[in-house]
Specification:
Length: 107
């Protein structure tokens, strides 16, 4: 089981944490939401939680919880800029369907 960051995503997260002045890494998880069943949760981590599973990719720590891990195992978090749009992309091999707006997914 593993979660990874692309080099671009790791650089973006590391830069944001440096500007923020604190933080251990980023938390990736899922929540029940949307028309396809699940949505990603992404937030910065200031303190490791009980039961956290921790991975490291390109020098950045990725935290998740045991309940989310089966749905996101193997996911690479990427960061992309396309024209005026920029943001994180979730390359999740477990996804079987996504809603039209891209906000939720099913496995």
């Amino acid at each position: 089981m593993a979660l990874t960051l692309s080099e671009r995503a790791a650089n973006h997260v590391a830069g944001f944490l440096a500007r923020r002045g604190k933080g251990l890494g980023v938390r990736l998880g899922v929540k029940t939401s949307g028309c396809s069943g699940m949505a990603y949760k992404l937030e910065f981590v200031d303190q490791e939680g009980d039961g956290d599973v921790v991975f490291e990719s390109h020098g950045v720590k990725i935290f998740t919880d045991a309940k989310s891990l089966p749905y996101i195992d193997g996911t690479e978090l990427d960061y992309a800029k396309e024209g005026l749009n920029e943001g994180f992309r979730f390359n999740n091999p477990n996804v079987k369907n996504e809603c039209g707006c891209g906000e939720s997914f099913g496995v």
